[in-house]
Structures are given as C-alpha cells and as structure tokens.
Amino acid sequence: MDRFPRVVALCGSLRDDSKTRIALRAALASARAAGAETELLDLREYDLPAYDPDASEPEDAAALARAVERADAVLIGTPNYHGSYSGPLKNALDYCGRDEFGGTTVGLLEVAGGEFPTAPLDHLRSVCRTLNAWTLPTEVAIPSSRSTFEDGEIADERIAERVATLGERAVDFAGVEDYPDLVESRRDAVAGTGDD
C-alpha cells in the first residue's frame, strides 16, 4: 500500500452519550497513532429511512456506501440490543453490500450493559462473512458499560488496551486482500537473493 491506510468506524448507536461511540473514537485514535487516516461514520448524521429495495436510494445512503467503499478497514461498533446488534446498524448495513465491503478488513466492537456480551459479535461476523469482508480475529466485547466508562472515557485499563489493539490491528491488516500479491513479491525477492 503506497499511501496511508484509511480506517473508518461505523457507530450503530444513536444515543448522544453513546458508549459505543466513545469506544470507537478510542479505537480510531489508536489507528491514527499507527499511521492511518480515520473517520467516524456517525449514523445520527445520516438520514436513512428503513431500507426498501424498491425505493430510490437516498443521498445519505449513497454517501455512507461511498465512505465504506473507500475504506481499507472498517470498525463496526454496536450496543447490545436484546442479544443482537442495533436496528440502526442493521439498516445502515442493508444499504451497503459486497461492492462496499468485499475484500475489506473489518474489526468488531460491542458494548453491553450486562456481563457476557458475545452474540452481537457472532451475528456481525456472520453478516461480514456474507459480504465477503475479512473480519479480524481481534474483537472487543465491553461488558458492564455503566461501570466501564467514566467521564466520557474507558475507565477499565484492560478494556482500553484491547480497544487500542483493535485500532492497531485494523491498520496492520488494512488492505488484507492485497496480501497474496505482497507475499508473492516477497517470495520472488527472497528467491532472487539466493542466486548470487
């Protein structure tokens, strides 16, 4: 990759004081520190009616799809709503498809009020697989959100480190679909050095 990787975060929470948004901003800060250009895609700023494949595509939906398509890596964050990811996030993902996500590196993050947040990450991983995205093995499940966040920041040091790692991994593996070519060129380079 001959430019800085572009990492965007898609926030599936519409709350003004969203802890999901706080966590995604922290992950993006880590991605910037690792050399990426970053952007938060805040669904509060997009007018996305319920997805109707028979209706004309809203301008904001096209803008969202373009932002995702231009990204080398996408961080998807959601609150845990009834054991799955949020409705606004599902609607936003319905406006995107394989053209936007195919071959893109994706990192997943979930914030829950309870103790064992896992199912939304499984559900999102399945969606990403359907969209032909490359989902990072590193994922972040943040439990007990009322005590994990304080004053607009992640108060739990271990979780903060995991969120930072997610941002770093998004940069490390951005453009992962190009890796076979990179590996091939490295093999050729190594093979060539043995002839001298």
Automatic annotation (TrEMBL):
**Molecular function (Gene Ontology), one example:** oxidoreductase activity
| Signal sequence, start to end | none
- Source domain of life is Archaea
User: Could you give one GO CC term from the UniProt record?
Assistant: cytosol
SUPFAM superfamilies listed in its UniProt record: Flavoproteins
Q: Which cofactor does it need?
A: [4Fe-4S] cluster
Q: Which residues form the NADPH-dependent FMN reductase-like domain?
A: 5-144
* Family the UniProt entry places it in: Belongs to the SsuE family. Isf subfamily.
| Protein name (Swiss-Prot/TrEMBL) | NADPH-dependent FMN reductase
Q: Which organism is it from?
A: Natronoarchaeum mannanilyticum
